[in-house]
Write a structure and sequence with these properties.
It contains twelve helices and 18 strands. It is of the alpha/beta class. The chain has helices at residues 6-17, 83-91, 125-131, 144-152, 165-179, 182-202, 229-236, 254-260, 278-284, 292-295, 304-308, 314-325, and strands spanning 4-5, 29-30, 37-38, 43-44, 59-62, 68-71, 78-80, 98-101, 135-138, 157-159, 213-217, 222-224, 240-241, 249-251, 264-268, 271-273, 276-277, 299-302.
């Protein structure tokens, strides 16, 4: 992501964060707005074995809104208006099938060459209709009202709302089933599971009283509480999210942050406001110079894309968070 005004970043996150921007692996989807996962109604006309990862069509799947879709064959034309979902689809090797992405999609590099379909919360209707895709994927930044509007236009739109690493991996598994790329999906999921295992095993030795308090700011004045994937990643990394008394994406209470005195502050390192980087904004706030993280050089930047996209690189974010919290453990 190029350096941009924080409002652009907030637009990636707004629907989820303000209403926002990244795996056990059954076919779970997220119950919209609840933060809980449930098993979707996955049905196939023929029984699959663990050694045969070819999708047997027709296949029926359910998305985060409870909408059910039946596919008679793998989609030939795919649109994604969510950067996280776009990353997942490219990771599955679906470059040729992807015929459109959101204006914010910039990873992998191939995504930048695809036709643009507008924003992530309110994509361009005309562009999506013209793309004539078999399926449109959307993520955490589009609310159900916007999804319904597209469905009323006859557009097949599949929404995700991942709240955890498990949810991210479950979505990738479902994408693999829909697109007949299950083998690749399982490779991605296996790596994600290994990353989680590596991190959680490494932090087992951290005693409860030694766990570090962590504060994350992904956009000026905004943090994340419990019930979202970023909060879970801090926990998996052996940290304690100082904003976990809140739920979802929330504006910060500076007094509470100072009082919580985090050992580590994580921020989106390519976000700016009024020509000031986010770390400088944080350090210049009144009273924040007394916070341990500021005094001890524990204000650490992380790529904004990783912070905002619950996709195949989510466990890369987990490893980055782990290194930031416990550099002595993760060299």
């Amino acid at each position: 992501m190029s350096i941009k005004n924080w409002k652009s970043v907030a637009s990636l996150l707004s629907a989820a964060a303000l209403a926002l921007a990244l795996a056990g692996c059954g076919n779970a989807t997220t119950n919209e707005g609840s933060g809980a996962s449930q098993q979707p109604a996955q049905e196939q006309s023929q029984e699959q074995t663990t050694t045969d990862l070819k999708t047997q069509y027709p296949i029926t799947v359910t998305d985060a809104t409870g909408e059910t879709f039946t596919f008679e064959k793998a989609p030939a034309k795919i649109v994604s208006v969510s950067p996280a979902e776009t990353e997942s689809l490219f990771a599955l090797g679906l470059d040729e099938q992807i015929v459109g992405v959101s204006d914010f999609d910039d990873y992998p590099e191939a995504a930048t060459t695809k036709p643009k379909m507008g924003g992530v919360s309110k994509p361009n209707e005309e562009s999506i209709i013209a793309a004539d895709a078999d399926i449109v994927f959307t993520g955490i930044s589009m609310n159900e009202e916007a999804v319904k509007k597209f469905r009323d236009l006859g557009i097949v739109i599949f929404k995700t709302d991942p709240k955890s690493v498990d949810d991210v991996a479950n979505n990738i598994e479902t994408f693999g089933q829909i697109t007949d790329t299950q083998e690749k999906a399982q490779e991605i999921i296996a790596k994600m599971k290994q990353d989680v295992t590596d991190v959680t095993e490494a932090v087992k030795a951290v005693k409860p009283e030694e766990k570090k308090n962590v504060y994350v700011e992904f956009s000026p004045g905004w943090t994340v509480g419990k019930g979202e994937f970023m909060d879970e990643l801090i926990t998996l990394a052996g940290g304690i999210n100082v904003a976990s008394d809140m739920t979802g994406w929330k504006p910060i209470n500076e007094e509470n942050i100072i009082k919580s005195n985090p050992d580590v502050i994580l921020y989106a390192n390519n976000v700016m406001e009024d020509n000031k980087t986010l770390d400088k904004i944080i350090k210049s706030r009144s009273g924040w110079d007394q916070i341990k993280a500021v005094k001890n050089e524990g204000v650490i930047g992380i790529d904004a894309n990783l912070l905002s996209r619950p996709g195949p690189r989510t466990t890369e974010l987990l490893k980055e968070i782990s290194k930031a919290i416990y550099p002595d453990i993760f060299q």
